[in-house]
Amino acid sequence: MSYTIHKGRPTDTSERTQKELQTYDLLDELKIEYLRIDHEPLETMEACKKVDEIFKTSMCKNLFLCNAQKTKFYLLLMPGDKKFKTKDLSKQIGSARLSFGPFEDMERLLCLTPGSVSVMGLIFDRENQVQLIIDQELLEEPYLVCHPCINTSSIRLRTEDVIDKFLPRLGHEAIIVKL
C-alpha cells in the first residue's frame, strides 16, 4: 500500500470518528503542528513499522496497564524495540505487579480500543484516572508518532509539543522512568 503524508487534519471528515475529530480539534486549538498518514487499521507493532519508516521516526510502544487490584491505571510510552518487563517498571513507580489493563477499562477511561492505544486518549481522561509514564529514551526523540484515538491514521508531533503544550492543557503530568 502507498502512504501519503498530509499536513494537519483531514478536509473530508465524513468518514472520521468523533474521537478522532476531537483529537484534531485540540491539537489545532493548541497550535500544535502535526503530519498525518491515513492507512488500513494497524493493530500490531509490526504493522506500524512502515508508517514509522515513512515519518523517519523511532517506533513508540503504547501500553495500557493496571495494578493487580485494578484500582490504578497507567499508560506507558516506551521505545518500540524495548522489551516490557513489569518488575522493572513496578519498582520505579512503587506499584504492585502490573499487568495489561482490561479492554473495558481502557475504553471507559480513554475511549480507546485495542490497537489504537495512544497518548491522545488522555483527552478523554478528564478525572486523571490514568497515570502517564514515559521512558526517558523517548524524550530524547524529536518526534513522537501515535494514533489520533483510531488506528486508521497516524500522526507525527514534536515530542516537545506533547510535553509542553498537550499534557499541561489536559492537566496530566508524566512520570519519567528508565526501562
In percent, how helical is the residue content? 25-40%
The biggest beta sheet reads:
5 strands, mixed
Write down how many β-strands occur, each being a DSSP E stretch of 2 or more residues: 9
- Number of domains as seen in the coordinates: 1
Q: Name the CATH superfamily assignment.
A: YbaK/aminoacyl-tRNA synthetase-associated domain
Structural class: alpha+beta
- Can you tell me the CATH architecture? Alpha-Beta Complex
How is the largest sheet built, in terms of strand order?
Answer: 5-3-4-6-9
Return residue spans where pLDDT drops below 50 for at least 5 consecutive residues.
Answer: none
Number of helices: 6
CATH secondary-structure class: Alpha Beta
Termini separation comes to: 34 Å
Report the mean per-residue pLDDT as an integer.
92
Tell the overall outline: globular
- CATH fold title: YbaK protein
The proportion of strand residues reads: 25-35%
Rg, rounded, reads: 15 Å
Order of helices and strands: EHEHEEHEHEHEEHE
InterPro entries: ProX/PRXD1 (IPR040285), YbaK/aa-tRNA-synt-asso_dom_sf (IPR036754), YbaK/aa-tRNA-synth-assoc-dom (IPR007214)
Protein name: YbaK/aminoacyl-tRNA synthetase-associated domain-containing protein
GO molecular function: aminoacyl-tRNA deacylase activity
Pfam families: tRNA_edit
Task: Characterise this structure.
The protein is α+β, with helices and mostly antiparallel strands and 179 residues long. The protein has a single domain (5-177), classed as YbaK protein. The protein is 31% helix and 26% strand. It has 6 helices and 9 strands. The strands form 2 sheets. Strands 5-3-4-6-9 form a 5-stranded mixed sheet. Strands 1-2-8-7 form a 4-stranded antiparallel sheet. Strand 3 (60-67) and strand 4 form a beta hairpin. The longest helix has 12 residues, at 18-29. It is globular and about 45 Å long. It starts with a strand and ends with a strand. The mean pLDDT is 92.
